[in-house]
Amino acid sequence: MTADPWTLGIIGGTGMLGYAIAHAILKARTIPPDRLWISNRSGRADGFDDHPDITLTTNNQDLAQGCDVILLSVPPAMADRAVRQLFLSAGTMMANAQPTPAEHVQQMIDYAGTTAAGLEDMRRSTIAQDIAKGLDAAIARTRTIGSS
Question: I need a labelling partner for 146 at 20 to 30 A (CA). Which of 1, 45, 74, 130 fits?
Fold first, then answer.
């Protein structure tokens, strides 16, 4: 276990896969039980009686706000809906709220965590130019699709 453990949330954490992952993490002591959140629809913590320090919730928003890492362990149809909601919420937040997206990135960098290290490395790289080249290629191809 690290000196500064992160907090993990498992949406669908009492389903077959989520339960197995959560118990493997607890058994390996990857994170302490008080750094594990489980979200499910029922609000029951079946199978986690030996770990009273786990945070159980039926509110995925609470889990998302309380965790550093989120694992989505739900059936595919539910996952599709959850991912769409995530993008909708993130887009709405970015479009309507302060701080701006650039300010959010700067806050992550100022925090100087793992995300900041990745963002700083990407800023020093040619990733923006590479993405622009890829988008230009996609646009060029789009313009030829109907005309061939």
Answer: 130
Number of C-beta neighbours around residue 68 at 10 A: 14
Tokens of 99: 């701080």
Distance, CA of 44 to CA of 19 (rounded, Å) = 12
Q: How confident is the model at residue 35 (pLDDT cuts 50, 70, 90)?
A: very high
CATH class of 1-97: alpha beta
Burial class (CB in 10 A: 0-12, 13-18, 19+), 104: middle
- In angstroms, the CA 37 to CA 56 distance is 6
Domain boundaries, the chain: 1-97, 98-148
Helix and strand counts by DSSP (H, E) for the chain: 6, 4
- Three-state SS letters, 24-78: HHHHHCCCCHHHEEEECCCCCCCCCCCCCCCEEECCHHHHHHHCCEEEECCCHHH
Dihedral sign of CA atoms 119, 70, 113, 30 in order:
negative
Residues 27-49 have a mean pLDDT of: 90
